[in-house]
Backbone:
């Protein structure tokens, strides 16, 4: 998973409201209230508060799936064993970060590092902003495993539960763990970025957590992960393409191999949702519409480096400008999922279900139209310093 820049977030001023991040004001004190960061004497504040408070500012809804539906997931145990676990790769057949990195035990280590650094010199700063943002997103993996384990009926109840759902979640996490590892080690060796600032960003992000508003509801959770896996597939695929264009075939290979994992994960998660559509079309179409109304918040949208309150927006703006992950991709993913789950062809829905179906099917062209209009109005972005790059200026 991991995620990925949310362009809508980025350009909150330029993009239509549906495309903005979920920032709803709190109405009732009984709900958990998360604070936002205030600017100003932040350094002082941070010293007083060694851990960042959660920065989410919307209502936190829990356990929205009717309890009886937990049975659906129990009854799908064997199905998941035969249809989902097959998308995991045996560890012995998996690539490892070391396959793509200089071998520290070899005599040629220094030479290989030198070559890696020479190649990195040809790559522009804006590319590094995106690659660092992608790496930070991947490195917040504990948050994503936590998120999956919030879901009723599929969570890993013990930490080593033998259910198919729990096996999937642990093995998925183990596969994902290689993504941050590989990118982290590459960035460490390349010498182009401020590792300490990046490491602080990772620590802040894991401490912040995330609330993708999946409400302990596996319908919402698997729709969310389907979306995210495809988003990361697109994003890593594009960083691979750009690395190739900058003449770094080895880096292209690294990003490409990560993209291939994301694709496999997307296949698994979309298959789960496809099955839910088969068993419970009404419940699933309502969940899909609900998730899309709330917008898919990006896993790393609470990113912070101790300096820049809008770090995620800035990273996303660079990703948008380079075409690594754009507002158009959001519409494309949406359209892909509508087609993948054959939402248009659903029959026998309730009145509410039909409304949700209509809403979903009309959404991709609507997003696209609004996005095109917003792009037409978009102005040239300024250049700002990124702590990840020793405060070098990068154009947004
Ligand atoms: Fe993934
Ligand atoms: Fe990943």
Residues:
């Amino acid at each position: 998973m991991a995620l990925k820049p949310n362009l809508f977030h980025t350009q909150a001023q330029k993009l239509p409201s549906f495309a903005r991040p979920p920032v709803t004001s709190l109405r009732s004190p009984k709900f958990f209230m998360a604070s936002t960061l205030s600017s100003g004497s932040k350094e002082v504040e941070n010293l007083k508060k060694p851990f960042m408070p959660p920065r989410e500012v919307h209502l936190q809804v829990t356990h929205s799936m009717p309890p009886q539906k937990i049975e659906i997931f129990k009854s799908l145990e064997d199905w998941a064993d035969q249809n989902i676990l097959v998308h995991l790769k045996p560890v012995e057949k998996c690539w490892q970060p070391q396959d793509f990195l200089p071998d520290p035990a070899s005599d040629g280590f220094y030479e290989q590092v030198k070559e890696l650094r020479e190649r990195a010199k040809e790559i522009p700063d804006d590319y590094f902003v995106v690659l660092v943002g992608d790496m930070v997103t991947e490195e917040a993996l504990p948050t994503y495993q936590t998120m999956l384990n919030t879901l009723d009926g599929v969570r890993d109840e013990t930490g080593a539960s033998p259910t198919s759902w729990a096996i999937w979640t642990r093995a998925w996490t183990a596969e994902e763990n290689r993504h941050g590892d590989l990118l982290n080690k590459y960035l460490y060796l390349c010498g182009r970025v401020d590792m300490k600032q990046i490491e602080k960003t990772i620590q802040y992000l894991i401490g912040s957590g995330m609330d993708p508003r999946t409400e302990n509801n596996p319908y919402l959770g698997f729709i969310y992960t389907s979306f995210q896996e495809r988003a990361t597939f697109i994003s890593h695929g594009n960083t691979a393409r750009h690395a190739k264009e900058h003449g770094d075939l080895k880096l292209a290979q690294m990003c490409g191999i990560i993209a291939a994992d994301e694709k496999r994960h997307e296949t698994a998660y979309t298959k789960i949702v496809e099955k839910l559509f088969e068993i419970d079309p009404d419940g699933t179409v309502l969940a899909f519409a609900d998730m899309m109304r709330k917008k898919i918040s990006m896993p790393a949208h609470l990113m912070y480096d101790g300096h820049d309150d809008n770090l995620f927006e800035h990273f996303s703006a660079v990703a948008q400008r380079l075409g690594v992950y754009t507002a158009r991709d959001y519409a494309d993913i949406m359209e892909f999922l509508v087609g993948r789950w054959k939402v248009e062809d659903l029959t026998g829905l309730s009145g509410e279900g039909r409304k949700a179906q209509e809403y979903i099917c009309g959404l991709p062209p609507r997003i696209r139209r609004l996005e095109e209009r917003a792009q037409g109005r978009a102005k040239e972005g300024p250049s700002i310093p990124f702590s990840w790059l020793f405060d070098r200026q990068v154009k947004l």
